[in-house]
């Protein structure tokens, strides 16, 4: 009897231990962000903020902003027009880049389809279209008034469309540029982590050259990525008509929910100074309205180099020669000459207006030994990441795919298991920024209590 009792006791403890093991495993292998409740709430508005408000309250401090129900047929024609029939009839022959699989893998190839070919099969395949907006389609895409003065309009980078039948999942990553993402159709869920938690996010399994984590976003192994359990995070739920500002270097993961999912985003190089006089001129005829993307010019990559260079002085109101030489890595003689070159008014200090007036190519040519690490990358892909490789076979290998071939179609349709895909207004100048913000930024939809109202 004693032996039987001992066996029962051992069996009991074994079952209990197995239960604890199973509980530990289930706690570990959860989707990204589900190990702890979200921390805090994001600010929400019901309109595109004025550029001055947008810069001082969101871009400069690096604070995300959810803009609810801001897309209309007037300020973003693509929102009303871009159903499948319209896209097929008007832009069907446009060539687009399509990725295979719906869970991001940054080593995946992309294929070239016509838009018509993609529209014919995307609802019954494992495809995701990630493509720079072609010039022919840019007339339907409008740039929000928030980005039309102050310097934003001179730092616009890629605008990209993201199109799928849903269930796409991005890696956890950050972008080297600020970003406004607008949802034309469907729903998206975002996990956002403040860049100040870099040590937690990047301590394990982070590809620094690619600015992304190797964590499985569907099953986070906390033994391999313990920092992610401690990292505070924000949850953002977007529905069609919403836009989201994601500050540069904020870590984020994007999940597109099932169903037709179409988004457009605008990347712009980070501004370290806002040109008030520029906006005074732009606003002289009244509040800024959204305008066609075609009316704006994409910035040179050298403006990214400027943004990187000016990050050295981000906490300064002005820069003395001593401060300049302390942070610029180059021989002292070259540094002195560079300071004098930049000091246009010869007052022995650099003001931000001066730092945004010089031509970056002149500086790079004359003072290349002062900014050796800030030369433009050889390529810049359409996901906000810089790719320093010239090998087309590494990350952006292109292949033509005959979508009329049934075998190829079936291959693409059936490839989902292990193959992955990349995601994705009162006179403000006399009132002051804070009072102006309180006067014009509307409250969000009262039914949406998942975010803090601004």
From TrEMBL:
<feature type="region of interest" description="Disordered">
    <location>
        <begin position="378"/>
        <end position="399"/>
    </location>
</feature>
<protein>
    <recommendedName>
        <fullName>JmjC domain-containing protein</fullName>
    </recommendedName>
</protein>
<dbReference type="InterPro" id="IPR041667">
    <property type="entry name" value="Cupin_8"/>
</dbReference>
<feature type="signal peptide">
    <location>
        <begin position="1"/>
        <end position="26"/>
    </location>
</feature>
<dbReference type="InterPro" id="IPR018247">
    <property type="entry name" value="EF_Hand_1_Ca_BS"/>
</dbReference>
<keyword id="KW-0732">Signal</keyword>
<dbReference type="InterPro" id="IPR003347">
    <property type="entry name" value="JmjC_dom"/>
</dbReference>
<feature type="domain" description="JmjC">
    <location>
        <begin position="122"/>
        <end position="285"/>
    </location>
</feature>
<dbReference type="Pfam" id="PF13621">
    <property type="entry name" value="Cupin_8"/>
</dbReference>
């Amino acid at each position: 009897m004693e032996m039987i009792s001992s066996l029962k006791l051992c069996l009991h403890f074994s079952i209990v231990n197995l239960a604890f093991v199973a509980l530990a495993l289930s706690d570990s292998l959860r989707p990204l962000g589900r190990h702890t409740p979200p921390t805090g709430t994001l600010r929400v508005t019901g309109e595109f903020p004025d550029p001055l408000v947008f810069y001082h309250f969101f871009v400069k401090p690096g604070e995300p902003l959810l803009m609810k129900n801001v897309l209309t047929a007037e300020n973003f024609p693509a929102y009303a027009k871009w159903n499948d029939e319209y896209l097929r009839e008007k832009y069907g022959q446009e060539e687009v880049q399509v990725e295979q699989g719906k869970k991001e893998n940054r080593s995946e190839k992309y294929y070239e389809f016509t838009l018509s070919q993609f529209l014919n099969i995307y609802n019954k395949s494992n495809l995701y279209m990630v493509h720079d907006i072609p010039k022919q389609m840019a007339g339907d895409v409008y740039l929000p008034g928030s980005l039309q003065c102050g310097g934003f309009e001179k730092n616009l980078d890629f605008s990209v469309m993201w199109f799928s039948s849903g269930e796409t999942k991005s890696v956890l990553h950050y972008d080297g540029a600020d970003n406004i993402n607008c949802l034309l159709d469907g729903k998206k869920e975002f996990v956002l982590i403040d860049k100040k938690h870099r040590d937690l996010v990047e301590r394990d399994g982070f590809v620094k050259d690619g600015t992304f984590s190797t964590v499985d976003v569907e099953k986070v192994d906390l033994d391999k990525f313990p920092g992610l359990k401690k990292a505070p995070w924000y949850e953002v739920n977007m529905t069609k008509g919403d836009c989201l500002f994601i500050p540069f270097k904020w870590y984020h993961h994007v999940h597109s929910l099932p169903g037709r999912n179409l988004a457009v985003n605008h990347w712009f190089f980070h501004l370290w100074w806002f040109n008030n006089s520029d906006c005074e001129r732009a606003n002289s005829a009244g509040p800024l309205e959204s305008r066609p993307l075609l009316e704006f010019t994409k910035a040179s990559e050298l403006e990214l180099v400027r943004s990187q260079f000016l990050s050295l002085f981000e906490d300064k109101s002005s820069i003395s020669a001593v401060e300049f030489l302390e942070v610029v890595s180059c021989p002292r003689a070259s540094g002195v000459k560079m300071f004098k070159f930049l000091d246009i008014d010869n007052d022995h200090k650099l003001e931000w207006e001066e730092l945004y007036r010089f031509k970056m190519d002149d500086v790079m040519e004359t003072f290349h030994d002062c900014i050796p690490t800030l030369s433009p990358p050889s390529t810049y892909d359409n996901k906000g990441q810089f790719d320093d490789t010239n090998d087309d076979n590494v990350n952006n290998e292109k292949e033509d795919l005959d979508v009329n071939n049934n075998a190829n179609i079936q291959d693409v349709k059936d490839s989902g298991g292990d193959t992955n895909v990349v995601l994705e207004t009162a006179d403000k100048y006399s009132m002051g920024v804070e009072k102006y913000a309180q006067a014009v930024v509307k409250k969000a939809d009262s039914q949406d209590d998942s975010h803090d109202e601004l």
